[in-house]
Design goal:
The protein is α+β, with helices and mostly antiparallel strands and 81 residues long. The protein has a domain of 52 residues. The chain is built from one helix and three strands. The protein has a three-stranded mixed beta sheet with strand order 2-1-3, with helices on one face. The two termini are 23 Å apart.
Length: 81
Amino acid sequence: MAQIKHALSEGTAMGFASYEIAGGAGEWRVRHDGNAENVYETKESAFEAAVAAASLALRQGHEVRITAPGKGTATGAANAG
């Protein structure tokens, strides 16, 4: 699983980290701080990457929010069948 960079470093004031899952058909991304560098095959794998990054932010004392679209297939893969 690719790593998502966390822009809020240790020692900074508590902040807000937002992770938005977007894409479709085998090209899912996680937007954070205006960047969406990594591509994931499924919506589920993008979500897992966002949760891992959000977990780090939460441990550092930041408020976190993860959003994901509810429409489409459960995995969001290019070929759901």
